[in-house]
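Office hours follow-up: a student asked to see two folded examples consecutively, so here they are.
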Amino acid sequence: MLDHADSERHAAPTGLRASAATTPITVSPVSPAAEVLVGTTATSPTQLARKSSAGGQRHLFAGSFGGLLSSAALQPFDVVKTRLQQGRHGSLVVVFRDLVGTGSQRNVLRLWRGTLPSVFRSSVGSGLYFFTLNEMRQALSRAGEHGAGGSSSSSSNTSTSRLPTLSGQANLLTGAAARALVGFVMMPVTVVKVRYESSFYDYKSLISATRDIHATHGLRGFFKGAGATAMRDAPHAGLYVGAYEWCKQHLSKSLTADQLGPIPTATATAVNFVSGLTAGTIATLLTNPFDVLRTRLQLRPDLYRNFFHCALLVIRDQGPRALLDGVGIRVARKSVSSAFTWTLYEYLLSQVG
């Protein structure tokens, strides 16, 4: 075919260009990771940088939008969970009644207490997390092509993911690292949110909560429980990404065994949501003790010296079962929130990509 093309070019009159519609053009094969960034056409370094930047912005936007919607809708679960984890309490019904009130004092809007810092943390935090996670996955995918072993394969027509496919270990590593980094950056917002949701403090506004934390504990007060948060977030995110990708891979294969071509959008959305629910349930169950200790540390920094001291006192005074406080409400909230955020994130990427 190349010899035929060469003969056609030699036969053309001097100074006359061959038509692009009739002249075959050979394009060098593009690597799977590069296809994610630049499609299937050759691209200059400048164009590649621009496309990479635009891709990062899409991940940032998609993650932020998904986090904002899920956080606002599921805030009541977060408030109830904080009340359950703050210490000795009654049943879920008692906590709910104390929170909402009874009779003429009933106010359902109290379930959305602390929504502003929660939405800010989730939208900004989710955007930063998905942006960071994408950059890490792209880097490992490119490194894998050069022998580093980070990438196992690329996304194919039978995959529901818009991200490069990595090995199980790489999924765990990137998920944990990205979440730990973003969790530390967003820690001050998390501390204010937890304090404001709790019944231990009668804050009238978020500004008064912020001022009180700074006046009592200084800047260090905004990072109380950072260790426990990292020990909760990093394993949770690592387990979640690993389980999520594993579930998607196996569900996609089972649903599209006899199908040729790309997976329909509706099927891909269903696969992503079910995978998110499954992964969220597993990761949340395994990391709930760290969430309980993180909440206690942030609510009572005067009582607990550090993570290990907090764990010792909680187990000694209330027994190991206290480490499962709020696990039901947390699983319900976290699994649905994660599934919704990831499904919307991947859907938005598929629409704008």
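And the second, which I mentioned at the end of office hours:
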Amino acid sequence: MPSNLQTKDLFASGNLPASSNVPNTPDPFKDQWQKGTWSVEVKQPQLQISRAYTPLPTAEQTNTSGTIKLLVRKEQNGEVSSYLHQLPVGGQVELRGPNTEFVLPDEVTDVIFLAGGTGIAPALQVIHSLLERRNLQAPPNIRIVWANRRREDCRSLAEQTQASPTVTDAKFESQDIVSGLDELKRKFPDNFNVEYYVDEEGTYLDQKRISQMTKSRPSIRMGPIATRIDSRLLFVCGPEGFINFLAGPKKWEGGKEVQGQLGGIIGKMGLRDWKVWKL
């Protein structure tokens, strides 16, 4: 059964700086990649609605034309995701943004990112910003936990070929992201690690596992230790049910979606030295 987790490569033209359409000009999203997590809104023109999507970093992120890559899960009743998946190659898309979601401080020492499904996209932005974009004297330790319902949504190239050697879905293969994560582990062996949890295999995120993550300390650092509350960041990102279960629901206030009270499993843990942020 083919996965419903797919990507679309979108050329962001229209509301980017005019110079971005000229070859060899600077990446118009350079500042956003540096800051932390960010998104763009994609418009469905027939229904006049939009949804926010998180751009994926490319291998070297040397964009000079404003091209961005989005991870889009095609939902059965998703107006915007269905619209994107039926667009032809070369089709034009209306974008609004970029919108900054979270600015990562330079003083961060530890990051735990609990990602469900497409929530892996901002996790990749965090890694890209802290380990690849910034020249930090003491790079942070980053731990990504990627939870999916099915193994095929987080399967490596070798696993995918072994399981379905005839699969040729050009839109997306889960190994695109898994291979990128494997490469990051090779590139930053002392600062990055990733774990996979799969519902159909009976591996779930629970209070015990999260507690072990937050209490474990990586290798001892040389030099001063940051004591600010935002030096240790715990992110939760994914479908609404995933966020609600782990950290409680976000809420609407003044026409905007805000963090809301910390609840769920993490809210019961009484974490005092971690800043929890729902994306």
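Two things to take away from it. The helical segments are 30-35, 79-85, 120-133, 157-163, 175-187, 207-215, 240-247, 264-267. Confidence is low (pLDDT under 50) at residues 9-20, 165-172, 219-226.
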